[in-house]
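FW: tagging you since you asked about this chain on Friday. Here's the raw sequence from the shared folder, copied in full. Didn't touch anything.
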Amino acid sequence: MDYTNAVIFIILAFSLGLIMIMNKDRIPQKIRRGMALTSIALILFAFYIIVYSLFTMGSSS
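HL: got it, structure written out here
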């Protein structure tokens, strides 16, 4: 199975989280909470993809 899209998504999700942490003072207050919740949801989904790919690594499909 090709995991290229999953790897790209994981890198981008963690990059978004890092950018949110590094630039938290520059982000306007109105959109800070929404962007933080969105980045948390994307990071959690990236962790799910990592765990799922580890569990299905040995299967032959």
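FW: Residues 29-55 form the longest helix (27 residues).
HL: agreed, and Residues 46 and 52 are 10 Å apart (CA to CA).
FW: great, closing this out.
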